[in-house]
Amino acid sequence: MRAVGSSIPRFDIRDKVTGKALYPGDIAMPGQLHMKILWPQQVPARITRFDVSRAEAAPGVAAVLAADDVPVNEYGLIMPDQEVLCGREGGLVRSIIDQIAIVIAETEEQAEAALALIDIACEPLPGVYSIEEALAADAPAVHPEKSDDNVLLSYKIRLGDVDAAFEQADVIIERDYRTHPQEHAYLQPEAGVAFPRPDGKIEVIVGGQWMHEDREQIAHALGLPDEQIVVRYPPIGGAFGGREDMSVQIVLALAAQKSGRPVRIQWSRIESMRGHHKRHEMIARARWAATKEGKLLAAQVDFSLDAGAYAYTSTKVLGNATLACLGPYEIPNVKVDSRAVYTHNIAAGAFRGFGGPQGHFIAEMQMNHLAEALGMDPVELRMKNLWHEGGKLATRSVLPPGVTVRETLEACALKAGWQKTPAGWQRPQAEQIPARITPLHEAFSLDAAGGRKVRGIGIATSYKNVGFSLGYVDESWAIVELHGGAEIEKVVVHHAGADVGQGAHTVMRQFAADFAGVPLEKVELIADDTDHTLNSGSSSASRQTFMAGNAIQGAVREALKLWGNEERPAIATYRYVPRATTPYDPETGEADPNITYGYCTQAAEVEVDLDTGRITVLNFWNVTDVGKAVNPQMVRGQILGAVAQSVGWTLMEELKYENGQVLTDKLSTYLVPTVLDTAVQVAPDILENPDPQGPLGARGMGEMPFIPTAPAIVAAVRDATGVWFDELPLTPERVALRLKVKD
Fold this sequence. Notes:
Elements: H1 13-18, E1 33-38, E2 45-51, H2 53-56, E3 61-65, E4 92-93, E5 101-105, H3 108-115, E6 119-124, H4 131-135, E7 151-159, H5 162-168, E8 171-179, E9 191-196, E10 202-206, H6 211-222, E11 229-232, H7 249-259, E12 263-266, H8 269-275, E13 282-290, E14 296-308, H9 314-324, E15 333-342, H10 356-374, H11 378-383, H12 405-415, E16 419-421, E17 424-426, E18 453-466, E19 476-484, E20 488-494, H13 504-516, E21 523-526, H14 544-564, E22 570-576, E23 596-609, E24 615-625, H15 632-651, E25 657-658, E26 661-662, E27 681-687, H16 709-721, H17 732-742
Parallel strand pairs: 1-12, 10-11, 14-15, 20-21, 24-27
Antiparallel strand pairs: 1-5, 2-4, 2-6, 3-5, 7-15, 8-13, 9-10, 9-12, 13-14, 16-17, 18-23, 19-20, 19-22, 23-24, 25-26
């Protein structure tokens, strides 16, 4: 039996369910110290008094460290624009994500008590807490040394003549849209241990998504060569992009370096929700034009993302959203203006979909509005305008081969009850929707009154880039060892790709087994530290299966050549570099932006309580083209998880700020969906049209099933109620108030 294509159980599942696997918060070391962080109480502010002498003298305290104790006091994944610690007289606090100082003590309680003894006073400064405030003419500058208008970065795309196209249009849709921040809410809050090793290196054991990048940022801040830092990743409870930027990594290493002892930290949920980045809030205005036959003529989009106080990955998210706001459609005339804006909110960064959910919300909502204005079925309109093999992007580059968005749309539409007739696509009537579900209303308090309920169905489609983009040189290294005599008895794979719960390490074993032609049980994977692996890139951008598979394939191929030459063991190192991409031209947006793409279409049937505003997703159809399902059961699991997370973003998760402070800073006020809050029934269907660049045809797919959910649900709510919602989330309160206005 071939390993690839089989739903092999994850190799680590027994250890995880029995508790044998140690998560970062489970790890303790003899003689360890405990660390606590001093967080800001108001933002923005300038520190006018800072004295740690009383804290240093407190019982059990080993050290109190602040700005002057950090050798190179800066860090950042894209650019080093944040201080590791900002505690000092004259220090600037821009956001509650800032860390002022750390206390290291013999016990957690002693460290906590010493925090209260730090003598600190701050002078409040004028702040900007929304995109609109940040862009105002007289707005205070968040980073005056970088930008006096609070624009971190802007992009534009120009194609054809938009003004002339609008003059020729039969229908024009102009709407404003707003999407909201989202908290990652992964299972384990940030935690870890760092310690000095006998060989002089500092080892940091944390959860993360890119261990070699973590190592580089830690070493930079500590003023050490990269080789002096070892990063180790134990199992973690999810990431979703939220562990791509620094949290406890640098301060743990700093504490171990300064104290000479192991140091441990475990954030509370409140600390986690204030201490790591969020999904970008977005505001947009879109104006699209079409002919009465349904051909798109022009798209004009202007949108802004709230980057928060620091860059994090905002520049890359903006790059993705700038193209995604046009959807997977051929539009001959395009004008896009986009920008990421500094505010004094928590920094925004990577989150599943990485700009795709915000961008596609604009595009798919515009398509739904256009379909209604034209009196045309929404599937029919999309089919008239979808990308096709050999077509061109708005950036003037030819689409990478393997364009299958049309296949996902057709499959999803048919599964959800649409009919393909000689006259075109036709949406299902109520009695034609398959697998109708009547949920148990008594399970929900809002349904206790049994109010008036209506149902509707909606559809949306999308794409997502696979791999790093816009000129970044992506790479993935693998080392493969073949051991044995006459035949291969053991395959050892060294690959640093992080498994953040998605099953990447199982997939790597499956690839290696098939490439080497051995049973899966002969494959051993070494993947948990930087000492024994080379750079794999991040577990993000839906790239790990694609990149790791290609790297392992190359390394096995080279090792088999050595094996054929009688080398024992045969050891080969291989660096996989995909085809090059190019950045946007600053004036025209011309670019070859992405390596390749994955495609996903979703349809939703919803029920809306007209009295309470509660929306229940009854049926949800998902069709994702994964190229090759390396492990079909894990693919389906990724789809189900993405749908639960995206339904949460669409209907209930609402991160609320006030003057830079998070009001919903715990899971009792920031509500994530339980099993009773996500879709009642999900059909996680997959297509397998091989991607020519993928290992055995596999595409990345972890983010794709998040992206089209919101516009599909909003279209279904419109079908049910006759009301459009152009702002997320669709909480019961927002829906009920909007429906009352309609009445």
